[in-house]
Design a protein that fits this description.
Elements: E1 29-33, H1 36-43, H2 48-58, E2 66-70, H3 73-82, E3 87-90, H4 99-109, E4 115-119, H5 123-131, E5 139-142, H6 147-170, E6 174-178, H7 182-203, H8 210-216, E7 222-226, H9 229-238, E8 243-249, E9 252-254, E10 257-259, H10 262-273, E11 279-283, H11 287-294, E12 298-301, H12 307-318, E13 324-327, E14 334-338, H13 341-347, H14 353-361, H15 364-371, H16 375-383, H17 386-389, H18 392-411, E15 416-417, E16 429-432, H19 438-453, E17 463-466, E18 470-473, H20 475-484, H21 488-491, H22 497-506, H23 514-524, E19 528-534, E20 550-553, H24 559-576, H25 580-588, E21 598-604, E22 608-610, E23 613-615, E24 618-623, E25 639-643, H26 648-651, E26 657-659, H27 673-678, E27 683-688, E28 704-708, H28 709-715, E29 722-726, E30 731-734, E31 742-744, H29 747-750, H30 757-772, E32 776-784, E33 790-799, E34 819-823, E35 825-827, E36 830-841, H31 852-869, E37 873-878, E38 900-906, H32 922-928, E39 931-935, E40 943-944, H33 946-950, E41 954-957, E42 961-975, E43 980-984
C-alpha cells in the first residue's frame, strides 16, 4: 500500500456475491392465445419455442420457456386451470375476439398471472387504445412478427420480478428506460436486450469455469420500463445507487397529463442529485437536441436510421459497456484499451496521471466494473472518491489491491479452467482437461472450499491460510497420453518397474500443454511437486493413500530444462500406476488395474530456498481422532505429528513431535530431558535444488536430501521451533542459543504463542471432519517469518479409512466370560484377527521385581523367534513395560518386544505400580498401531484370566516367561474412543 494512503484505506474487506441466488424467479411456461393462422404465421414454418430456444442458446442463456398455443378463451381457461402458467400472451385476431377482449377475460378469471397484449398498429387500433384502460395488463406491445420481441418481453418481466431481491442481494444495476410510446419501446427493447445480453456474454469470460460463467450472466444489468414521470422518479429515488444510466423520451405523462418536456425535467432533476450518472434523451423532435445539450445530456434522434448504433455507442462510452478506454482528457484520444479485469490490474500503474484523474473523478472505473457484474470492487471504489483520498498514486494502489483481493476471493474454493491469458501469480486452482480431478485433486478442491466457507481461518493477524497454487492435469490427459503412445501393453505386463518407467519416459506428452506449463512456471516461481491423484486415491471408502508416486523438481530460470524435468516427472507418476506394488494393492483391494485412471497435480512446493536446498519450516499430519490419548487428552480432540522440513519425512516414519492441539503445552517428548534428547527429531528432508536432469527413478525420493538438524540451524530456519540443550547445566532452554544441540520442540508455537498453530489445527480438524462427516487426516506445511508472520498451507484431506481400524461392535455388549482379558484403560483402535500366540510372565505369589532384568533377557530371546517367523503376539506382564527402573517394571527396550501386537500391563496383589500407558516407547506404539492395555484387578479395572493360559501346553517356557499358542487366531478389539479393549477366543 502506498505510504501516503490514509490509514482508513489500508485495510478493507470485500463481500463476495453469490450469483446463484440471483434471477430466482423465472418464466418457464408461456400460454399464447392466437388463432391457428396467426399461430402458424408466428411459427413461420417452424416452432416458436425452437426459435426462442435458439435465441437463448446464442445468447448463452439457460432455462428457455416452453410454449402452449390455444385459439379460444375456453381452451385458454382449461390450460390455465390445469397447468402452471407464468405468462399469457394474447395475439391479434384470435377466434373469439380481438386481443384486448381476450386479455381482459384472462385477467378477470386469473388476475395474478401476468398478461401481455401483442397488437399490430393501425389507425383503428390507435384510436381505440386512446379509450382503452390498459392498466390491467402488464404491457402492450406492437407486434410486427419478430420473435426476439417475445424474448425481450420475457426478460423484461423477469427483470421486474427479480429487481428488488437482486439489488438487495448483490447490488445488481439497472438501466431505466422511460418511454410511453408502445411502438417505440417495442422497437428499442429487443435491441437494448440483445446488446446487454451480448455484453453479459463478454463479461462472463471473467468467470473461472463454464458453470461460473453461466451463473455470472445473472448479474447483468436489468432493464426497467417506466411510462410516466412519477413512475420513473419513483424508481430513481428507490434505487439511486443501482442505476447504471437513464434513457428517456422527451414527451410522456407527468401529473396525469402529456408533457412535451417531461423527459428534460426528469433528467434535470436526476442530474441535480448525481452529477456523473449517464443520462440520454431520445426524441423525434430536433429542437430538443439543443435543450438536451444545454443541460449536459446526451441526445439521440429517434428519426435517425442508425439510432440503435448511436444508442449502443453511447452506452459503451458512458455506461461501462464494452472495453474500458483510458483517454487523454484534452484530446480524448485513446491511451489504453482494457478488455478485462486482469488487464486493468496489469496496466493501472502505467496510465498517465491526467487520464487517471479524469476517469476516477467521474466514477468511470466503478461504473465499468458494475456493468461487468464485479459488484464487490465497484461498491468499494464508489466510496473511495478523489475528494476523500486526494492522491492519484494511492488511488491506483487501492484499485490494484481491490482487484487482487477480488480475484483471490473468486479463486478461493473454485476450480477454474486453465487459461494462459488469465493464470498469474494471483491465480489459485485450475484444471487442464475435462476429466476427473482424481482423489487428491478433489480433496484439494474441497479444502479450498472449506477455507472459503469459513473466514475464521484468515482472521489471525499476519497469518495467511490457503492451499498452494495448483493446476490439475485431469484424467482425460492420462487417457490421451496412454492411447497416443500405445503404452497399455507394457503397462499391464509383468515387466519390472524400471522397464515400465523407461518406456513411459520415452513416450511423448501432448504438445498442446507446453505453453500452459510455461505460464504456470512464470506464475509460481517455486519448485513444483508433481503428485499422483488417481480416481481411487483418498476415496471415502478405500484406503489408497500413498500407493503412487510424488516427485519434486526445482525452479529454474531455464524454462526448457524445467519443462523437460516436469514432463519426466508427470510420466513417472503415470508409470507408478503400473508398478508391481500398485498392481498387488489393486488385487488386494478387489479393484481392476485397467479401471484406474490418473490425474496429476502440479503444485508449488511450500517452503523457502536455503542455498542449494529447499524446505518449509515445518510440515505435519493432523488426525481428527486420537486412539492413543495420554493424560488430559481425549480421543475426539485429535492429534498432530509435526516435523521440521518436507512432509515426506513424516510419511517415511521419521521421528516427529506428537502434540494434541487442545493441550499444546503437554508434550510427552519434551516433558523430560532424557526423552527429549532421545525421542525428538535429529534429521529432516529437503529438496535438492542442484539436481537437474531427466534421470528419474522408480524411487520418487531420488532428489530429496536427508540433512541434519544442525544444517537447518545454519540456514537460520529454526526460529520459534527449536530449544537448545545446555550440556553444562544439563537443561533444555526454550529458544535458540549459541552452542548446544538444538531440540525440535516447537516451543514458540506451542507454548509461547508466537504463531497460532494450535488454533489453526483445531479449526482445520473441526471444519474438515464436520464437512466430511467422518474422521479425517489432513496434511499441512508452514513457512514462518522472523517477524512472527507466516503462511499456513493445507495440502491434503482424506477420510480415515483403514480396514484394521473398522470397529462396528460395542465392546460393552460382549460378556466377560467370552474374554481372555479386558481393559477399561486401553490405547489403540481397531480389530485384529491374525494373532494366535500369547507371551506372559509367570506371576505366582513369590513373584519379585528383582527378577525383572532377567525377564527382559528372556523376552528378547522369544521376540527374535517371532521376528524370524514374521508373526506377532500378545504380551502380558506386571508393572511398567520399558521402565528404566527395574523395580517398577520389566526394563525392555522397544527392539526387545517389537513383534508384540498388544502389550498388557497388569497389577498384582503384592505388586501394584502406577500405570505408564506405554510412555516409554509411545512413538513406536503410535507408529506401528500397537495396542497398549492397562489392567488393575485390585481396583476392578478389567481382568486377565491367567488360569486359561496356565492350563494350556507351552510352546516355549523359561524360568520366568511362558509362551502358549491357540488353535484359532484370537480376536483383538480396541475402541479408541472409549479406551476399551479386549482379547477373546473365536
Amino acid at each position: 500500500m502506498n505510504e501516503q494512503a490514509p490509514q482508513r484505506w489500508d485495510k478493507f474487506y470485500l463481500k463476495d456475491v453469490s450469483f446463484k441466488n440471483l434471477m430466482t424467479h423465472r418464466i418457464f411456461n408461456v400460454l399464447i392465445i392466437a388463432n391457428p393462422y396467426d399461430a402458424f404465421m408466428l411459427e413461420d414454418d417452424g416452432r416458436v419455442d425452437e426459435k426462442i430456444f435458439n435465441e437463448y442458446t446464442e445468447l448463452g442463456l439457460r432455462y428457455p420457456p416452453t410454449f402452449t398455443q390455444v385459439s379460444t378463451m375456453v381452451e385458454a381457461s382449461e390450460v390455465l386451470s390445469t397447468t402452471s402458467i407464468d405468462l399469457v400472451i394474447c395475439m391479434p385476431g384470435n377466434a373469439d375476439n380481438d386481443a384486448f377482449t381476450v386479455a381482459r377475460a384472462v385477467k378477470l378469471e386469473f388476475p395474478d398471472i401476468p398478461c401481455v397484449v401483442l397488437t399490430p398498429f393501425s389507425h383503428g387500433i390507435t384510436r381505440r387504445m386512446v379509450n382503452e384502460d390498459l392498466s390491467i395488463f402488464e404491457y402492450v406491445f406492437c407486434w410486427l412478427g419478430n420473435t426476439n420481441l417475445i424474448l425481450s418481453i420475457i426478460k423484461l418481466i423477469e427483470d421486474k420480478m427479480n429487481l428488488e431481491h437482486d439489488i438487495d442481494e448483490a447490488g445488481v444495476q439497472m438501466i431505466l428506460l422511460v418511454e410511453d410510446s408502445i411502438r417505440f419501446y417495442s422497437s428499442i427493447l429487443p435491441n437494448l436486450y440483445s446488446y446487454i445480453l451480448a455484453q453479459s456474454q463478454r463479461f462472463a469470460t471473467e468467470a473461472l469455469n463454464p458453470h461460473s460463467a453461466t451463473l455470472r450472466m445473472r448479474g447483468r444489468p436489468k432493464v426497467v420500463l417506466a411510462r410516466t414521470y412519477e413512475e420513473a422518479m419513483g424508481y430513481y429515488l428507490h434505487y439511486p445507487e443501482n442505476i447504471l444510466g437513464v434513457i428517456s423520451d422527451c414527451r410522456f405523462p407527468k401529473g396525469g397529463e402529456k408533457d412535451s418536456e417531461a423527459g428534460l425535467k426528469l433528467l434535470q432533476e436526476i442530474r441535480k442529485r448525481d452529477p456523473f450518472l449517464p443520462l440520454i434523451i431520445e426524441s423525434s423532435e430536433s429542437e430538443n437536441k439543443e435543450k438536451a445539450e444545454a443541460l449536459g445530456l446526451r441526445f439521440i434522434d429517434k428519426n435517425s436510421k442508425k439510432m440503435n448504433i448511436d444508442l449502443r455507442n453511447l452506452m459503451a462510452t458512458h455506461m461501462g459497456f464494452g472495453d474500458f478506454v483510458f483517454r487523454d482528457p484534452k484530446t480524448h484520444e485513446e491511451i489504453k484499451r482494457i478488455r478485462n479485469l486482469k488487464e486493468l490490474q496489469d496496466n493501472i500503474f502505467s496510465i498517465p496521471n491526467d487520464s487517471m484523474l479524469y476517469h476516477i473523478s467521474r466514477n468511470h472505473v466503478s461504473r465499468w466494473l458494475c456493468a461487468r457484474a464485479i459488484f464487490p470492487v465497484s461498491e468499494f471504489l464508489k466510496t473511495v472518491t478523489l475528494e476523500k483520498l486526494k492522491d492519484i498514486d494511492a488511488h491506483r494502489q487501492i484499485i490494484f489491491d481491490a482487484i487482487v483481493q477480488y480475484r483471490h476471493m473468486k479463486n478461493l474454493g473454485t476450480v477454474a479452467v486453465f487459461r494462459r491469458e488469465q493464470f498469474d501469480a494471483y491465480s489459485h486452482f485450475a484444471r487442464i482437461g475435462d476429466g476427473s480431478l482424481g482423489g487428491k485433486g478433489r480433496g484439494l478442491a474441497f479444502l479450498d472450499h472449506i477455507i472459503k466457507s469459513n473466514p475464521e481461518f484468515n482472521s489471525f493477524e499476519g497469518v495467511k491460510v490457503s492451499i498452494p497454487k495448483t493446476v490439475v492435469l485431469c484424467t482425460d490427459v492420462f487417457d490421451q497420453f496412454m492411447d497416443n503412445n500405445n503404452l497399455y501393453q507394457i503397462a499391464l505386463s509383468d515387466a519390472p518397474d524400471e522397464d515400465i518407467l523407461k518406456a513411459f519416459l520415452k513416450a511423448q506428452l501432448p504438445d498442446q500443454f507446453i505453453d500452459d506449463f510455461k505460464t504456470f512456471f512464470d506464475a509460481i516461481k517455486h519448485p513444483i511437486a508433481i503428485r499422483s491423484s488417481s480416481l481411487l486415491e483418498d476415496s471415502h471408502y478405500q484406503p489408497f493413500a500413498g500407493i503412487y508416486s510424488t516427485y519434486m523438481i526445482p525452479y529454474l530460470d531455464d524454462k526448457q530444462e524445467m519443462l523437460r524435468m516436469l514432463a519426466a516427472a508427470i510420466k513417472s507418476v503415470y508409470a507408478s500406476v503400473y508398478y508391481k506394488d500398485s498392481k498387488a494393492y489393486m488385487t488386494a483391494t478387489s479393484n481392476v488395474i485397467d479401471q484406474e485412471k490418473m490425474a496429476v497435480i502440479l503444485q508449488e512446493v511450500v517452503g523457502k530456498q536455503y542455498g542449494d536446498h529447499f524446505y518449509p519450516n515445518f510440515s505435519g499430519v493432523l488426525r481428527s481422532i486420537n486412539y492413543y490419548p495420554l493424560g488430559y487428552e481425549k480421543s475426539e480432540e485429535g492429534i498432530a505429528s509435526l516435523a521440521l522440513g518436507l512432509g515426506k519425512y513424516i510419511v517415511d516414519g521419521g521421528q516427529t513431535l506428537r502434540v494434541s492441539p487442545y493441550h499444546p503445552d503437554q508434550v510427552l517428548q519434551t516433558s523430560d530431558m532424557e526423552i527429549a534428547l532421545r525421542q525428538t527429531q535429529t534429521r529432516f528432508y529437503a529438496l535438492d535444488m542442484k539436481h537437474i536432469g531427466e534421470d528419474f527413478k522408480v524411487d520418487d525420493g531420488f532428489n530429496i536430501m536427508n540433512l541434519k538438524v544442525k544444517d537447518a540451524d545454519a540456514d537460520g530456519a529454526l526460529n520459534f521451533i527449536a530449544s537448545t540443550y545446555d550440556p553444562y547445566d544439563q537443561v533444555i532452554r526454550e529458544g535458540l542459543y549459541d552452542g548446544g544441540r538444538k531440540i525440535i520442540s516447537f516451543c514458540g508455537l506451542l507454548r509461547q504463542g508466537v504463531f497460532p498453530l494450535p488454533e489453526l489445527l483445531k479449526l482445520s480438524m473441526r471444519h474438515g471432519a464436520d464437512s466430511m462427516k467422518r474422521p479425517v487426516e489432513i496434511e499441512f506445511a508452514c513457512t514462518l517469518n522472523n517477524d512472527r508472520t507466516g503462511e499456513f498451507y493445507l495440502l491434503q484431506i482424506r477420510p480415515i479409512v483403514d480396514s484394521k481400524q473398522m470397529l462396528d461392535e460395542d465392546l460393552a455388549s460382549i460378556p466377560d466370560e467370552k474374554c481372555l482379558l479386558r481393559s477399561h484403560n486401553s490405547l489403540g483402535h481397531g480389530v485384529s484377527t491374525d494373532v494366535t500366540d500369547v507371551v506372559y510372565i509367570k506371576t505366582s505369589d513369590d513373584f519379585t521385581a528383582a527378577d525383572n532384568p532377567a525377564i527382559a533377557d528372556e523376552i528378547e530371546h522369544m521376540n527374535r523367534k517371532f521376528l524370524a517367523d514374521n508373526t506377532g503376539y500378545v504380551l502380558v506382564g506386571p508393572g511398567r513395560w520399558g521402565s528404566s527402573d527395574p523395580w517398577l517394571g520389566v526394563p525392555v527396550k522397544w527392539p526387545h518386544i517389537s513383534a508384540a501386537k498388544i502389550i498388557v500391563e497388569i497389577t498384582l496383589k503384592n505388586y501394584s505400580v502406577d500405570p505408564s500407558q506405554g510412555t516409554h516407547f509411545f512413538q513406536n506404539l503410535t507408529s506401528f498401531g500397537v495396542g497398549y492395555f492397562t489392567i488393575d484387578e485390585n481396583k476392578g479395572m478389567g481382568f486377565f484370566r491367567k488360569e486359561i493360559l496356565d492350563a494350556m501346553p507351552s510352546v516355549d517356557e523359561t524360568e520366568h516367561v511362558r509362551h502358549v499358542r491357540f488353535d484359532k487366531p484370537l480376536k483383538i478389539m480396541m475402541d479408541g474412543m472409549k479406551q476399551e479393549g479386549l482379547v477373546m477366543e473365536q
